[in-house]
Amino acid sequence: MTLVEPLIRYFKNYFPLTAKEKEELSIRFSERRIKRRGFVLQAGDVCRHFTFVVSGCLKMYAVDASGKEHNLQFVAENDWITDMASFYPEKPGKVYIEAVEPTTVLQIKHEDLIYLYTNYHKFDRNFRIIIEQKYIALQNRLLLNISATAEERYLYFMEQYPHLANRLPNTQIASYIGITPEFLSKIRKERSLSQ
């Protein structure tokens, strides 16, 4: 299996790839292995890569003035992550991207992604769709944060991340939902009793 085989399988779900396009992926993407709690990105750094998760799980979070972490996003196998507010304008970012568990990723640099956009329009279209999906998820999450109960936010988490519910500690899930781990335990207990 080649280094970029997981990426080739991912793209094949959307469009067929020519031999030249597969070759471009192998040239433009590089593999990186990240230990648990290792960083893909730290606040203050410029995000230089768009990242595809081959195995493992990453979280994106911000830290407030009191030092409290606020989880913004989780990504696992066959999903993408980047700090778009840093990656595209090439300016220092305000978020961290950290491995929740040992993780293997494939990364593409900004200039290489622009090359693919320019020379292979199917990649331009596919990455636009990825970005649109991420934007829709962000908008849905913002609406939930201002209008939904804690239980509704928990149910949304379970709908969006069913594959991660047993892989993430309660503290991580609670941070994403915006509640304490104790309140999360209470919600889970009440839901198990009502079912």
Automatic annotation (TrEMBL):
Single GO cellular component annotation? Answer: cytosol
InterPro entries listed in its UniProt record:
cNMP-bd_dom, cNMP-bd_dom_sf, Env_Response_Regulators, RmlC-like_jellyroll
Family matches, as Pfam families: cNMP_binding (PF00027)
Record-linked Gene3D superfamilies:
Jelly Rolls
Q: Taxonomically, which superkingdom?
A: Bacteria
GO terms for molecular function, please? DNA-binding transcription factor activity
Instruction: Outline the extent of the Cyclic nucleotide-binding domain.
Output: 13-113
Give start-end ranges for the coiled-coil region(s). none
Name the record gives this protein: Transcriptional regulator, Crp/Fnr family
Per the UniProt record, the source organism is Chitinophaga pinensis (strain ATCC 43595 / DSM 2588 / LMG 13176 / NBRC 15968 / NCIMB 11800 / UQM 2034)
